[in-house]
Amino acid sequence: MMGEQRDSQQRLFYSFNLDEHVPADHLLRGINQFLDLCDLRSYLCPFYSHTGRPSIDPELMIRMLIVGYCFGIRSERRLCEEVHLNLAYRWFCRLGLEEAVPEHSTFSKNRHGRFRESDAFRHVFETVLERCITEGLVGAEGFAIDASVVKADAARASAGPGQAAGRFAYGPGQASRAVREYLEGLEVADRPESARSSICVTDPAAEWTCAPGGPAFFAYSTNYLVDVRAGVIVDVEATSAHRTQEVGATRTMIDRVEERFGIKPEYLIGDTAYGNAATLGWLVKDKQIDPYIPVWTRADGREGIMPNSDFTWHEKKDEYHCPRGQPLRREWRPFRTSRTHSSKAATIIYRASQRDCASCPLKRRCCPNTSMRKIARSIHEQARDVAREMAKRRGYRQSRRDRKKVEMLFAHFKRILKMDRLRLRGINGARDEFLLAAIAQNLRRMAKKLCPTAPPMVLGYP
Known about the structure:
Elements lengths: L26 H8 L5 H5 L13 H13 L5 H10 L1 H6 L11 H9 L1 H5 L1 H15 L7 E10 L7 E3 L15 H8 L13 E3 L6 E4 L5 E12 L4 E9 L2 H19 L5 E3 L7 H10 L3 E3 L19 E3 L4 E3 L5 E3 L17 E6 L1 H5 L4 H4 L7 E5 L2 H10 L4 H8 L1 H12 L10 H25 L12
Parallel strand pairs: 1-7, 7-8
Antiparallel strand pairs: 1-5, 2-3, 4-5, 5-6, 9-10, 10-11, 11-12, 12-13
């Protein structure tokens, strides 16, 4: 017999349990099991007024933002619509069927206000990371470091020359938040604006860069420090898309993790960009961390010239020996006052004797255009030698495979979380977005690693 749907819209009472309508294997159930925001209200209490109308619960806003970043919902307006309609989202945000969803403008006001002033997103990230450590997902045997370029919310048409800082001279209150933050930090910038080829008027902190084979664009870099045991992000830092800033973020993150969690890795994995002499010297001498990093060397474009590798280093004598056994020294006569002989490039120049080179049959291959052979040795050369020895170890080949865990996180960051372009402007906006994305990735990692009912990982993505 054909059934007929009866009109039940006029029922006066309903018995509805929201928990029964969320599947047992839903991702949010696993995330909710490991997300603890019980101390968030006490952490944010100093940034709220003690009088006036009660505000939106900050835990509710954080949970909604986590939903948005976990499922790639970039628009806050659309996020409010999805939470209003989706029962699983409502359950995770602890909203009943009759409770109203906050207005989308509430997120902007809090994000640029008390959340940024209190560094609430950093607090939530460290709370999640502490849970990862408690669950045994962080081993601290080895960390991997890498950076990925993310497009900024800036059009290519807004580009101007590096001397365009004068274009930011708006009237009082007319400059945007990103411009005001940039001007406030301009005095402590690492390099002058004249050194930049292009600058964006709407987001001046963004760096003009390009990927191989593609057009140039404005971008920021997200820097990940990842524990290689389970691929957990132990720290994240936002920088401009410049190689110097990316490499410098390594020290910031390693020091911060050691200070706040007492964790220091036994070895660090990275690509050649992190193999400069200063970084290797800091890792080996200051932090006692083994560098599983290829040593960065400047290519010698002189064809037919004898390379520096043909010269033998004698540490006790503090000198090089050429293939014919003649020495190269940092000084050939004593000085009244001791000298370090260190140059601005943090190198020490070792010179051969002009008399020895003049009568040497190898001079045409060794130094045809100069009267003597010179070798620039870095003051961190011992650390570079340590890195070269690490490359011969059995675990070095495995470290190259472990480094892919960072690259997979970046692929998940851009493809699944849809973070291929930022929505917020300024370095603070980029920092907020990168922290929220890292929170979402760590929560997804815990949910899928530790929950037996969680859905399986797809293509290795967390």
